[in-house]
Amino acid sequence: MRDTKESRLLLVLLIAIAFALITVDIRGGEESPVDGARQAAASVFGPIENGVSGAVDPIGNAVTAVRESGDRHDRLARLERENAALKAELGSDDRSRSRLKQLDKLLGVAGKGQYGIKGAQVIAIGAAQGFSWTITIDAGADDGIQRDMTVLNGDGLVGRVTTVGPSTATVLLASDPDFTVGTRMEAGDELGFASGQGDRPLRVELLNGKAEVKKGDRLVTFGSQADKPFVPGVPVGVVSRVDPSGGDLTRTLYVTPFVNFSKLDVVGVVVQSPKKDPRDTVLPAKPEPTPTPTVTVTVTPSAPAGGPDQQEQ
Fold it and tell me: What share of the chain is helix, strand, coil (3-state, %, to 5)?
């Protein structure tokens, strides 16, 4: 429509009519003369509005879902972080409890043997000075550690100190092929020398080729002159096999160590020797033998052949 005087006059007239209808509708309330027209318009345009609303709602719902999905993702990520932190805390507590248990066991051994020890933690394994079976501990010269000191844990003999730094030290494990320690049989005076064989049992050569030894017998360290490198009475292991005596001057034994060299964590370095040989007092209590079940068989006499009638005849 072109902008003319007639078009402007028509626009003003339509606006005036609209205001008049609004005034009449407001004053009429529910009995408004335009109510029927309004209902008719609602019946015509209502379905169209519902259709438009139905078409628009999925889009709005999708936008809301995306927004809520982001919130859920954030909550999930937060919960995952909290769970990871809780697991790490629980793992740390488990490790602390394990170390406390090891330390308690170590102190028990030190108390029985009257060993003055310096506690240390294993911080590295192997590859030191060319030795194949070694550990590095977090104690050194600053802690009073010296070369050729005995190292033990709550189970028994671990090894001896070979190299000392200011804050760390290298320990040669008893399982190393270059390791040798003097041993004594429990409840006796049979002496020998135990040598490491890597992940196999220790090999022990008894000085007495006719010594009476059996599987299950136990050994402790004999001790060295001036208690270096070994103090006496430290548990070494249990005899697992005895070679037949062939009339040799020595007798060969194979001994399973008390110490698990692949699970070392808390150890103790003996910095003060006992005043007297503890002998066998440091050895753990022997396990109770498993009772062998006995079977009692009761024999019930069977009736003679032929039955009672034939016996009477």
Answer: 40, 25, 35
